[in-house]
Structure formats: structure tokens, C-alpha cells
């Protein structure tokens, strides 16, 4: 990975050995590994491999999946650097949008009727996994009105595999400040209908805090929750209740000193969104208290 060095410590001799990075021998090695562990690596449920797009279109999509929010996902792989991976993926993404019924039928067969009925067509995604990308690739994804993630991979030694998000862009992005202003306004309007001025300020503060955790944080709107992601979800915010805002984070509850009325372990309990740690926010001070948890979830996801 660019700039990343990995070392193995030798506690016996107090030594340090660098684990050298390497590319896959063939592209299929990367594809096979990711498909076998797609939900763990990308937060995407695997649907199909080498999916044929028919005689007219004449192509094969490397991998098809469905992400945590119900968005259709195309994953394309390249062993090294390949200037065509983005255009190839966009070509397949256009086919997918024209064959929604076929995709929903596939989801129904693999994941069931409920999953098929909840496919989120407003946010289809393309994930490109490759040995590396150029600055031209990074610039190109920012020019397209599609949700695209560029992910760099490396093998380390015989048993380590690493992924690094190089760029992550949500579809229909405006300028950064303009997009954030529109998001804050949308959050404010939704909150105002429910809980008045206090919830307006609280929801805006949470939105600003989550979007400000790093470059390329995207927000996905669902009826039951609002997801914040960079490649995969790290926070889900439910519509404000009368006196509190519920946020679900990808933080292991056993690693947190749970505080009644502020944090709660909801693993095994049904709730909207993803994440096993529930954070209950009632005042701006609670948002400040939660910032370390927000950062931990962003890092973990």
C-alpha cells in the first residue's frame, strides 16, 4: 500500500522484520478471496460471480452484491493498475440500472423476498479493487455522478491481506461546502417536524461531526435511518424522537464502559440501521461526549 509498511515483531529476540507487500499472481486470486469474505471485507452481501449481461450487452460482471443499506453493488477487480477499470465498471452499472427486475429476482433467489423488496435504487455503487490507481483515476471518479469506491489491495507474507480506500465518492455530489449545507438543511427540516429547535441543533451537530471525520464520508438516506459510510457503514442515525436522537455505531459494546441513558449494547436486539452500540443523544454536550465513539467507529469500519 502507498506509504504503508508492515512489520512483524519478534518478542523473543526483540527484533523487527518487515513483511513485504506483494500483488496477487493473477486477478482471480483477489476476486476469489474477496468474494469468499465480501461481507467482512466490504460490508457487502455476495450475490453472484462472473454474472453474464446477455448476448446484446456481451459482458460479465466480476461480482454482484447488496450492501448494508440495500444498495446494489458491482465489484470489479484488476491485479495491478488498469486505466479501464472505472469505465468498465460504469458500463456495467448502466446495464444494471436498465435491468432492475433481473437484479431483484437475483436478490430474491439469494437473500429472500424481504431483501428484494428493499433494494435501494437511488444509490447503486461501483467498487473497484486493484493493485493501485493513478491520480487521474482519483480525479475521474469525482467527475462522475455515481457512487464509486477505489480500493487498493496488497498481500503481506503468506497470511495477511490489506485493503485501503483511495477514493470514495457518492453519486450526484456537489461541492463539499454546498453538499454539507444541503445535508444540514435536510436534517434540520426533518428534525424540526418532530422535536423543534433543540432537535434541529442536535441533528445538525451530529451530521457535522460525522461528515467531518474524514474525506469521502458519504451519506445514504433510507426511510428508517440515515447511514454514514466510507466503503461501509460506520454510523446510522434514526429520525429524532421527542427528546433524543439514537445513533448506532460499529463499536464492540464490550470494549466500552456503558453508561445507562447514554450508551447501550443492542447486539441481538432488532433496530434500524447497523451497529451493536446504541448512543442516546439528548443535548449538545452528549454529542461532545460521543465524539471519541464516533472516531472509534469510523476507524473500525
How would you describe the overall organization of this protein?
The chain has 301 residues and is α+β, with helices and mostly antiparallel strands. Helices cover 37% and strands 30% of the residues. It has nine helices and 15 strands. Strands 3, 4, 5, 6, 7, 8 and 9 form a seven-stranded mixed β-sheet that branches. A six-stranded antiparallel β-sheet has the order 10-11-12-13-15-14, with helices on one face. α8 (176-211) crosses α9. The chain starts with 5 loop residues before the first strand and ends with a helix.
Short description:
This protein has about 300 residues and is of the alpha+beta class. The chain has helices at about 25-35, 40, 55, 85-95, 100-110, 115, 135-145, 175-210, 285-300, and strands spanning about 5-10, 15-20, 20, 45-50, 60-65, 70-80, 125-130, 145-155, 160-170, 220, 225-230, 230-235, 245-250, 265, 275-280. The radius of gyration is 20 Å and the shape is globular.
Amino acid at each position: 500500500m502507498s506509504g504503508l509498511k508492515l512489520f512483524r515483531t519478534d518478542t523473543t529476540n526483540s527484533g523487527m522484520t518487515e513483511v513485504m507487500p506483494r500483488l496477487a499472481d493473477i486477478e482471480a486470486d483477489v476476486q476469489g478471496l474477496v468474494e469468499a469474505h465480501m461481507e467482512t471485507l466490504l460490508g457487502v452481501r455476495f450475490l453472484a460471480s462472473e454474472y453474464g449481461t446477455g448476448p446484446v450487452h456481451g459482458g460479465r460482471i466480476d461480482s454482484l452484491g447488496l450492501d448494508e443499506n440495500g444498495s446494489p453493488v458491482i465489484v470489479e477487480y484488476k491485479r495491478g493498475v488498469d486505466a479501464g477499470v472505472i469505465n468498465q465498471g460504469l458500463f456495467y452499472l448502466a446495464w444494471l440500472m436498465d435491468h432492475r427486475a433481473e437484479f431483484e429476482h437475483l436478490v430474491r433467489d439469494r437473500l429472500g423476498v424481504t431483501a428484494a423488496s428493499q433494494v435501494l435504487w437511488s444509490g447503486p455503487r461501483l467498487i473497484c479493487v486493484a493493485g493501485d490507481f493513478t491520480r487521474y483515476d482519483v480525479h475521474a471518479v469525482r467527475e462522475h455522478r455515481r457512487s464509486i469506491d477505489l480500493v487498493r489491495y496488497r498481500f503481506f507474507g503468506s497470511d495477511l491481506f490489506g485493503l485501503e480506500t483511495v477514493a470514495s465518492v457518492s453519486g450526484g455530489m456537489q461541492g463539499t461546502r454546498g453538499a454539507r449545507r444541503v445535508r444540514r438543511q435536510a436534517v434540520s427540516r426533518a428534525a424540526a417536524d418532530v422535536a423543534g429547535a433543540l432537535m434541529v441543533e442536535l441533528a445538525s451537530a451530529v451530521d457535522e461531526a460525522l461528515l467531518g471525520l474524514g474525506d469521502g464520508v458519504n451519506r445514504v438516506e433510507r426511510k428508517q435511518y440515515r447511514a454514514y459510510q466510507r466503503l461501509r457503514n460506520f454510523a446510522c442515525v434514526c429520525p429524532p424522537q421527542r427528546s433524543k436522537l439514537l445513533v448506532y455505531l460499529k463499536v464492540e459494546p464490550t470494549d466500552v464502559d456503558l453508561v445507562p441513558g447514554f450508551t447501550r449494547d443492542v447486539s441481538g436486539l432488532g433496530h434500524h440501521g447497523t451497529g451493536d452500540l446504541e448512543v442516546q443523544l439528548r443535548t449538545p454536550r452528549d454529542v461532545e461526549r460521543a465524539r471519541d465513539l464516533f472516531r472509534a467507529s469510523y476507524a473500525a469500519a
